[in-house]
Amino acid sequence: QFLYFIAPVHGFPTMSIEKETVSQLQLRFKRNDITTVATTHRNTLRVLPSSKAKSRQKVAVGDVSGVVTCFGVGKHHELKPEFATTKPNERDSEVTSLTLFRDQIFAGVGRRISAFTKKGKPFYINETSLSEKLLHLEVNTPYQTVAGDFVLTVFRETADAGFYMSPDKINGMISVARDNEGRVEAFIAGQDRTVRCIRQTTMAHQMGCEAPVTAIAWNCKGDVKALENPMAALDLVYGTLSGSIGGLRAAPDGVTRRFSAIPQSRLAGITTIRTADLTQDGVNDVVVTREDGAIELHSFEMNPDGTPVTTWTGAVGEVVTSLDCGTVTTADRHDLVVSTFSGKVLTFSVTEEDQNTKAAIPSMLQGNAGDLPTLEGTAAAAKQAMQAGRNNGEDAPIAEVLKVKIQSTLEEIAQLKKDVVKKKNEYAGQEPNAKKVSSDKLRAVAATFSMRDRIYLDDSGTIVLSLELDTVLDTVNVTANVAFEVVEDAQSSDETRVSQTPLEWCKSSKSKLIATYRAPQETSQKNMTLRLRPTEGFSGQITVYVTPRTTPKSVLKRTFDIPALSLHQRFSEDLGNGQPDPSVDPALSTVVMTGSFSMKDAHAWMFRSFFDVPVNVGGEEARLAFRNTFSGVPLYVRYRRGELVMASHNLSALATLRDYITREAAARKVNLQFETRPGPQSLERMLESLDVFVAHEAKLARSVKILDALKEIEAQEGDVSFMAPEYREVLGSADAIQKAHASQPQRLQYVIGVLERLYADRSTFRDCAPATPARLQELNQIVTQNYSLPTLVRFFTN
User: DSSP letters along 362-414, please?
Assistant: First the structure.
């Protein structure tokens, strides 16, 4: 079980919510694999409204081949195709977004907006001249609101009506037409922890959130585009990269917070979010999907204080790209409909197990899915299924469905076998038109798989590298030219095997890390999450080589830049509990840099120094706030043309940032002058923030050092009551101590390294002796032999 608590944001009280505390609510979701399309982007699946009451709804989904497919689902979960659009001939024609206006389908295909009726007939095309892909699309006729990574553009029919440049990446978008005069409000989810209300092309309101907002959806009864009173306040929900869920109320005159539910334990980031009354209690439930493939249902009505309770969790096994709700498999209750990155379309139905279906499937088909039936067995299976249907008083419709499905599957397998033989012969040079290849030469092969990757810094101070393939993963090789510690994820559900090459074995290489991640051979794992802890103060690159379990072998290479201050995570200043302006707070140590640099130059320095800094910046002045995920110490930056101010208690961070900017300015021949203003208590504050980590790691190291000797004494004496209480405590916690040390054996050296850099950097701000090897050895002894905070403070301040 995990807990949520309502964050004390804007005066909200703190309270905990326990998962599955409502025993009277027992939901049973049955997974059904409906169909498979090509690889899909985010938000490219929607459930069409039904034309009449108590009828099943159709599903529309777009994929990277540029095809929009519409289908229904029969009584026995069989596929009922409606239409599929023609595959475009031009390149760069992937379906990157899909939305509805009533029963009309609008899709962003490449740089073009295409519209289709519910029967698949095209009736509208808007050839835009946008430079970004159409990742987000909303339609409120005659207006279309589209957004890429940073630019939101409004079209009236095919005419450009204006644009809005977002200060950071746009991760999601919803919209509502406030009146018939074209007053459209779009709400965008920003990477900079902000939800913004864009009225036409001007920002009207904004609300800071607890983490980067990755998904957003309306929380209203019925279609928000068919409201009786469009000027009324509307509720919306959002999900974040840290796994939290929040609710806002959007009125024409402003945005207010409803709740913010933050998990106390680490959870994967949210990829999609939707609302629907799945529990049929008259109140919308919130459904979210996460980066690790988890699906969660959160209910509100069951909790007296109106906060969400997690009532059901499921898993898909890969990243979910789209989520919607509707009466797809049954006409009287909502289903969850999801699509995955690899192209699977699934439903989760709130229904009882169909016993007749279960009885109709022969035992040979309920066994190992890897044992494919023979053609002779298919006829026997169909005959057995028909007989089972008759014995249950049916007209054997499910037996016919099974027969069709089995026959279709066998035909597909036979065709795949032919394709495999043809490819083998082609590579062997046995095809009539194949070019003969010498057996002692390699043949160039282009990668035939797609990969989705993302890198970010999480709250625990580790860099998370998420990789997702549309096929089965085999190995991931990682190299880096800066030092990293490989962190094993105790909460991970997969059994990824990690092997790290000792650096002394590869002295000829410039790499500081060489590691191989291998997926278990007995699984069909498609995604992998790598967790690495960096050493702050050094910038570099991580390079990954991803190999799928396909033939012929091909590899994709990705390179990720690691900034020098890689442990600093950006946060919103309005959630910073009233933290002072860095340019005026005398308690903080400050570095003020002036010179002949532009606003663009200063922002480029920040972009290459931290994670989570937007590519573009607007206005004449910018302010950024960061927090070190290891020590919790904030760092504030304010810059404009010709002036840059940095303030923090973390002297090492200030020295690193100052040195990097100085090198970059010298390379560009930019004259710089800087002034350092030491804070009166900065060293003491920084050491206090590190005290809990240093004390824990020092105690753990001493316990590991004496544990074997204590165990030997216990084996000889039996009774250890004569020992000091601290030694008996070590023996009682032996297993936990060994486990903690085995998981992070280099953690104490990491902490000592942080202290050594802080001791060396203090001379930048104070008139004191340099960090000689003898002084660093004394620091090491203070930490490892008899650590105490007052002793450490005296050492640093003398």
Answer: -GGGSS-TTSPPPHHHHHHHHHHHHHHHHHTTS--HHHHHHHHHHHHHHHHHH
